[in-house]
Amino acid sequence: MRARLFTAENRKWWTLAAVAVGLFMIMLDNTVVNVALPSIRKDLGISISELEWVVNAYALTFGVLLLSGGKLADLLGRRAIFIAGLVIFTGASLWCGLAAGATSLIAARTVQGVGAALMNPATLSIITATFPPRQRGTAIGIWAGVSALALAFGPIIGGLLTQDISWSWIFFINIPVGVLGVVGALFLIDESKDMSHEQRLDLPGLLTSGIGLFALTYGLIETNDHAWGSTRVLTLFAIAAVFLAAFVMLELRQRLPMLDMTLFKNSTFSGANAVMFMVGLAMFGIFFYNSLFLQNILGYGAIKTGATFLPMTVLIIFVAPVAGKLADHIGPRWLMGAGMVLLTGSLLLFATLDAQSTWWDILPGLVVGGVGMAITMAPTTAAAMGSVPVDKAGVGSAVINSMRQVGGSLGIALMGALVATAVSVSPFNPAFASQFVEGYHRALHVGAAITLAGAIIAVTTVRRIRHAEAPSAAEPAVGA
Predict the structure, then answer these.
(1) Going by C-beta distance under 8 Å and a sequence separation of 6 or more, which residues neighbour residue 288?
(2) Which of 320, 356, 370, 427 could make a disulfide contact with 315, Cβ separation 3.0–4.6 Å?
(3) Angle at CA of residue 36, ends 157 and 41, nearest 5°
(4) Which CATH superfamily includes the segment(s) 9-185?
């Protein structure tokens, strides 16, 4: 029986299960913490600015180190880096739960971000190295479904643990999951790395990309409290532009670059990354302001808000694997285009909501958006990963994840700026609701224009992947 369970054909699916454990932890932490913030503030007696950094410290470290994590996975071994990230994330979760003050909690969240940045690119690169091209889209579809599952249950789990036990348990719950993930990775994942040619660490690339991404991410975070034209924000964006430009110039001249810039000569890779950036830009900011609309305008509580989005996330969970499998057979191009058109329709449906809307008014937008996200995200990721050589899977994964992360951060800032253009009174003023709704509609219409542009990019740049990998490319490294 055991022999049948762990045949060569079945083993790769067990590998996917092991990878999914780590992915679930990362994505769960993106949403589970938000629900607990009021309890954390009350229990630890910390300020609003310190509370913001409980969220920002994780997002900042995660965004800055994604590219480095992907390169290290290719260089040192994907299983090794995945396990290292899992151990760091699990240990930091214990630290978070035991934190007795703001400084300790923020430091622990920073370390959690380091672990997540090592794990996240490794999950996709392990899938790419493990699955043959004919099954890769299916596996990535399941990967996307697991992400949606964690995002769906994060607010509900966070609300229940915070309400019935203690906010510390939103972190403690990661510990048994992390231990299970490490054991599973050791026994179920074969080691793989970039064996294509001489390898070395590109320190100038690591330094310039790290500083550039730090300044960009920090600048986007600062737009929440400072005007886009403020000295602080403009200085951070200028630093980001200088160092990211330096990174590109260095990588074009390096003999063994951290990021092979020739990857972007492939129109499918460039198009898929552009679409992923636009999904983040349009949808992640709208998700954030949808939550504010439900709570501030319709008066929903945190748990009810999380539950409201369940139809969308349940659809993603079930449709994404189907979309991934379909992408294996017909290619990702038209699925991506259709998905982005559906997202455009979803945003326009949300733009019909107002202060008198009911859950039944919200449901059509959730259903259309759920199907749209499912048939966009999985094929887009499959297109990007299918257009890079397997030995560059870690870096390819890091790029597509960075596009989503940076697009999401920029989207929250952009949509916030659009909402703010219509709001001129305090939240306690009777006129606030109508002004917020006006700004919310404005942001939704801009988001719809972005997703429609993404549909055009998808169908004009993405091509059917012609797999011509050497048989050895996906083989485990010697000594696995």
Answers:
(1) 412, 415, 416
(2) 370
(3) 165
(4) MFS general substrate transporter like domains (1.20.1250.20)
Q: Measuring CA to CA, which residue among 160, 208, 178, 220 is closest to residue 39?
A: 160
CA gap 325, 137 in Å, rounded: 5
Give the model confidence (pLDDT) of 344-401 as tens digits. Answer: 999 999 999 988 888 899 999 999 998 998 888 888 888 887 777 766 766 777 777 7
Average pLDDT over residues 332-339: 89
SS3 label, residue 379: helix
Does residue 217 carry a pLDDT above 90?
no
Out of 3-7, 109-113, 180-184, pick the least confident: 3-7
Three-class DSSP labels, 421-469? CCCCCCCCCCCHHHHHHHHHHHHHHHHHHHHHHHHHHHHHHCCCCCCCC
Query: Residue 290 half-sphere exposure, CB side, CA atoms within 13 Å?
Result: 29
Burial (0-12, 13-18, 19+ Cβ within 10 Å), 169: middle
Residue type present at position 238: A
User: No. of H helices and E strands in the chain?
Assistant: 18, 0
pTM to 2 decimal places: 0.75
- Note the pLDDT tens digit of each residue in 153-183: 777 777 777 767 777 888 888 888 888 888 8
Q: Determine the topology of domain 260-465 in CATH.
A: Growth Hormone; Chain: A; (1.20.1250)
Q: With CA atoms as reference, report the closest residue to 55 among 181, 173, 217, 176.
A: 217
